[in-house]
Amino acid sequence: MEPRIRVSALLRRGDRILLCRHEKAGRDHWLLPGGGVDGGETLVRALQRELTEEVGIEDDLPLEGPIALVESISPHPSRPKHVVHIVFAGYLGERSLEAVTSTDAAVRGHRLFDRHELGEISLHPPIQRFLRRWEPGDPVVYLGAMWAP
After folding, report:
1. Is residue 104 scored above 60 in pLDDT?
2. To which H or E segment does residue 34 belong?
3. What is the arithmetic mean of pLDDT over 13-40?
4. What does CATH list as the number for 4-146?
5. The whole model's pTM is what?
């Protein structure tokens, strides 16, 4: 099984974090905006493309990072999957989220979450503890191998 590389962005407005809602098997899952890296594509270019597709941010958003690396390895032999998540950070500024549109069919909506709300949602990968304590300028963190069913 070849690992898949996924880039994502921890986009902040104050103490709030933007997440994208995906629906899978009738359940909501929340993800940091981002997606897969295509062959020959840089990590930052892939992330900028994904931010345009998932949240309609077309300008080059200044990014910090990577700030975290996370591996997701499925424990299910019938559904083998290995994803390496590379997380960057950015600041949303005053962009209106009401104008956010997604051309990604998997995205069902967006929302800004306060850090204390993160424990109440299904987040993949399950990095709530990291998101609650991360501050700009913190060193890169390897969060290990995790899997959220």
Report:
1. no
2. strand 34-36
3. 87
4. 3.90.79.10
5. 0.84
